[in-house]
User: Fold Bifunctional uridylyltransferase/uridylyl-removing enzyme from Rhizobium subbaraonis.
Amino acid sequence: MDSKVTVPAHSGLLDVATLRARCEFIASAHAEYRDRMRAALLAELKSAYQQGREQARELLFNDGSGLACAARLSWLQDQIITVLHDFALNHVFSAAMAPEAARITVTAVGGYGRGTLAPGSDIDLLFLLPARPQPWSEPAIEFMLYVLWDMGFKVGHATRSIEECITLSKSDMTIRTAILEARYLCGSHLLFDELAVRFEREIMRGTGPEFIAAKLAERDERHRKAGDTRYLVEPNVKEGKGGLRDLHTLFWIAKYYYRIRDPEDLIKLGVLSRHEYKLFQKADDFLWAVRCHLHFLTGKAEERLSFDVQSEIAACLGYQPHPGLSAVERFMKHYFLVAKDVGDLTRIFCAALEDQQAKEAPGFTAAISRFTRRSRKIAGTLDFVEDRGRITIANADVFKRDPVNLIRLFHIADINELEFHPDALKLVTRSLRLINNALRENDEANRLFLSILTSPRDPALILRRMNEAGVLGRFIPDFGKIVAMMQFNMYHHYTVDEHLIRSVGVLAAIDQGRETELHPLAGQIIPGIEDRVPLYVAVLLHDVAKGRPEDHSVAGARVARKLCQRFGLTPKQTELVVWLIEEHLVMSLVAQTRDLNDRKTIVDFADKVRSMERLKMLLVLTVCDIRAVGPGVWNGWKGQLLRTLYYETELLLSGGFSEVSRKERAKAGRERLYEALSDWSQKDRKAYSRLHYDPYLLTVSLEDQVRHAGFIRDADKAGQALATMVRTDSFHAITEITVLSPDHPRLLTVIAGACAAAGANIVDAQIFTTSDGRALDTILVNREFPNDADEMRRAANIGKMIEDVLSGRKRLPEVIANRTRGRKRSKTFTVPPAVTISNTLSNKFTVIEIECLDRPGLLSEVTAVLSDLSLDIASAHITTFGEKVIDTFYVNDLLGHKITNENRQGNIVARLKAVMAEEADEARDRMPPGMVAPLGAQSGTRE
Assistant:
């Protein structure tokens, strides 16, 4: 508990003497009219506070100190409350002459008790009542609270006697923590001092282990709820892992256990070195600066550093772009490095706590300590010992004597499946300077590292511990460059280093047979990969060159070539790693943006892959890459696309493609459909088996052909010119909507618009025309509900929307406008519109690919342009990477020819760019901040 707080100079923030004089004037001027007096007081206090707050904001921009800003705001609040308290007692309740023993005490608790406030923070107050409260005591408190509320403050408050505070502190750890930080503001100082003495004597004495265990358990649960990683790209500055609350937890524990008032006292106690204390201060100041700017910018107590404010805060803090990294990416990298520093401080602090407790209380609670049993030896090493399931150092010079031990520590922990003792990690953090070129080139160190990476246990866990301790980035400097690096987009959920480590975790899970249900093909083929070392190395390094001006795949392959030699890989292994990294995006992009029923797609992909070994490893790498992007990015539909590409390529690489002509295969397909309709009448079997052209028969499965035949026949019997059919697929996480309609050039435009209006995310479209002039289009949309019944109802509503638009019962512009109405302007992301036209990707079709910022109705507008240009769309492939969409269309002219005329191609590009330019200007009016439009599945791995 503190009775005072040191604050920086507050020149110009508030003239307290003038404010008091003005309040005295208000009291005398309105003495006969209490309501007028209160209204005038409220206006005066509000004006004084707003002026002081604005001054604090300007000073934050001038000196950049977050702690100074938080202290200024706290000091300003102190003055307002003190003046208000004195006014209430002197002029409202005539208690100015009351003896001190009869007075109340106003104390700041919580964060406010520490003497720091963010612009939007709650004001936490504890009103202490004397043993014999006066009749005016509680009315005075009520008067103060109502004025503060009317000023717009969020006030958390409690009114208690000292006895109540002590009693509640014994059973409620939240109240205990609040009182621990209590700070005197005004009123009876004797009352505050009595609480401080009794709290220390009756609550704190002898209960340090209990308090520490509770606070660390509370921290762990908070981390668990936040995703248990400090590397989320939209972190919570206050509650997230590595955020301010973690620093507060350290201070609470230090204050409670070591009885200190200033964190600097931890240096004298030997808990932190001076360097570590400065790190504590810098982290605290930086996080407070971010939090204060965040509150000022949003005008509220916003703690989540979302995409839509990151750029503005980066500008406020003065970050500038750098080749390969934007200003906002540089700011966020600094943020995550600070979060990592907070983790380092936590480990060092906990190690010191355990040392202290080992000396003083061997029976310390198991939640924080494990030294009730003596350390025991670990087979094969004299440098490390086991302490209750945790590896720790045998002596203090273990790393200095042999720097390879900095890697060996993690290897031994892995093979013995041990956790890490804070003592060991503290010494690792303090020994990082020993990781130099000699250690990096050491054969034994590299052999141990490769063993960790390819461990049959949990390599991702050990790699994460190495990364958090700073070892991984020092041992592999190229990896160190991407530590804490974020990518400013809505696709990637984690920093680059966290993404890579998670990728290794997915690979290990597949390798160990724990992911066969989710990834049946990867689980099936990985046992057939005899040498998996190149695969593990490629997975760890595939994004190691992110943040450089050049293509990260090419640069990453160059980095990998050097590292593979250092790791001791053979030339063959090295070439495989280099190829995998250079091509790690290709399989995902081909699977999701190309027509897999077009043989040219498979031929081109097979020419790039060239061997089954590469194909197998590239599939597994692609799966690991997408899975590690973030929750919800992977789904069964992506898996199905990858499996289709794999199987088709496998056939070609193994010489298994049929030599039978396309015409003969289509004829055989028609005969199979005829046979499958064996329970139909002869007339219907003939009619419906002859209804389709060759492309349909060659690309649609027999099961779906039979289902479609029944659907068309039912529509014919009912006399329906327009009909829809829906089917859910939970494994592939997609819902299929089949539309039967009279064919016309704008059919896909209307269907796409109706889906957008219904909020359906389209992932693919199969477009066919029947021999009697009807269209049979199958639209695949992302599944929204886990329950089939709910998803079927949603799909039926989408189908109904499509029917209403196609039949003219609803107008497409109106339904899209209704969906986008009221959405706010957002300038968070920009994607330069791009159009590519290729006649080499398909033997039969021209392939048009667009890339731009996603928004509602985009697909509808783009297909409308293609129809205006007299282009026939054979298939469409819709892929969204967060805020960016890549749509691919296989088209012909109306005579079935490719688009080869350069002038016509130029016109197509110009018209499409015009639509996307409108999107760039107008989509922001339709999108809420930080959100993308619903059209398009969050697909692919645009790494």
